[in-house]
Queue: 4 jobs
Job 1
Amino acid sequence: MIIFNFGIPNSGTDWSQEVFKKIWDSQNFSFQAEDAKSLEELNQIVGTMKLNERMILRFELLTEEVIAAAQQDAVRPFYHYRDPRDVVCMEMENSNIPFATAVDQTVAAYQEIHLALCLPGIMVIPYEHIAENAEGLIYQMATKLGVLLKLDAVSAIASEMRELQAEPQYASAASTGGASFATQSVRIDEEHAPDSSAIQPLSIGKWREQLSQSEKAMVNRFFKPLVDQFGFGE
């Protein structure tokens, strides 16, 4: 089974990557966890992956190769999205880019959502559910993988994730580029690394505090169709 863990940048794929690992760890499964840092690397991994083995593949942008691979019964796609105004804010903070560039990148990322939603068997994960309904979400993620977790196991994973987010070193190490996964791309049985990848602290509505008044007015006007479509708060 192959997990495709992807979506809008800064929308929780780092959180889900760790949850997927914990779910399969709970079943004593052997698996690989990969983070594709470029389109070329993504296509190379997809082109050589073995469908009869377990892999968690984290990436951002879709490619034709990924779309074709997602048609396989062994692939489980999980798509993440977030309030585009918060995405702009996080892109500026994590990638050290100007406001206009962050807006352009967020627009480009959201243009792929219609392609993602057409993938067979896809599970869509709103960032707000990660922040506010972690236990229910973890249970659903596990069942999508064919794993029926006991409720106390779900609670334990949710608690572990809250602890990860509370540790300052994870907040300072987090990045959008995926480099935090580079030293832990393979985690198999007893060889699993004891430490975890960087998990960004969860935050909803960050754009209200960090953007200037003019920037807030611009993102509210520019992303109004998406805000209305997905029901993000004003």
Job 2
Amino acid sequence: MAVRHRLIRKPPTEVWAVLADGNQYAEWVVGTAESRPVRGRWPREDAAIAYEIRLGPLRLANETVVRRCREGSTLELEAHAGPLGTARIAVDLRAWGEHCLVSLDEHPLRGAGGWLHNAGFEALIQLRHRAMLGRLARLCEDGGRSARVDGGSPQAAAVAGGGSGPDHA
């Protein structure tokens, strides 16, 4: 199970404001582009957002559904990735002094993602999480400036989004 933490130097209310904006999903989730709410009121339970995954000229339409929401602290999502199946993604926010400790937990639920899940796949997810938490931190701390430092490339984001200081687990 891929779990990663990061201390974001903003209060949980400001981090939650970014998570609660379905239009900003593609700004912090690595590999996605052009997110938009399609059903319900994001991030309420059963609400959904649509987005694209771009791999060179290939464009795949996907959807993420809110499965559990505890406003201000917990957002659990089910990401649908077509033939790869689905994954559970949980984001938990915890006050840490005047800042916010964010935990990101992801694992496959159904489909090929579960069958292919192994230590190597887990390492790739950890790189992705490092980039995602880096983007989320930039959106929150810098007001969104340079959140997508790489123009949207998941490979570049994995390199650019991370760090190795005390904010990363």
Job 3
Amino acid sequence: MQFETEISARADRPAIFVIEPEQVVRSALDYILRERYQTHAFASMDEAMASPMKAPAAVLIGIAILRDRGEEVLAELSKVFATTKILLVAERNSDPVAQAGLKQGAHGVISNPISFNSVCDAVGVAVGAPVFPGEPSRLTPVAFG
């Protein structure tokens, strides 16, 4: 199921896909991001792949999907969304599946505690938003490559 708001439908904002099977997490991420980005939330990879939009700036994907479908999910995402930054959403950065995902091409991990600032900062860095010198970073540790 895809959720969009009037705010997120504005074409002048970068598009962000949220692919997360757990509705509470999916809705929270969508809510956090929708004022700054054009958000598209999906419960499954199949829903996201069926979307007519093929060039989101970033994809946030729940680690449960990698556990269920295997690490080849990242190769599939990279193939379909060639210029897209992929961020994993996990309970902790040290999760072995998250670490394997980084080695397989994911650009970063957003981990607990998930907050408005940590999610917006991580997505902002991923999509190339300006970083202001002297401001403290509230970024959940991520690795971008």
Job 4
Amino acid sequence: MSAEFDSLVAEFERFQEQGRRAEARLAAYDGMREEIAAVEAVATSPDRGVVVTAGPGGAIRDIQFTEEALRRGPQALSATVMATVQAAVAEGARRQAETVQRYVGDDLDILDQVLETQAELLGVPVEELRSATSPAPVPRALPTRPVTSPGCSRSPACW
């Protein structure tokens, strides 16, 4: 009976350890979710006339224009905005993938999958995208001449 009891105790201890590991993973995933919710990527057009801020899931949080950008024709401005939006969303997706990769470890190649997909869609070599990952957070650039929305004051918070 003692061997049977010892076996039951050992099984119970294994069960408790599995429960502790599951709780630790859940706590880590809460941290991951918070980090992903805070993801912000900023892209600036080559001419510096358009600045786009994207959040998690590709949500566009802000688009800023300089006066010079607004003087361009509608088609040129549209093309610049679309390219800058794509760059911001792609960077946000890479940052989200980096966050997930840190939490899942080497079990899954999340970041590599995202980079390969983006390389295919954007027609850019994977190595170029890989070299662009993990940069220090980019400070928000403000337009040289702010353009405000109707009803917005001219404070920097509205730019």
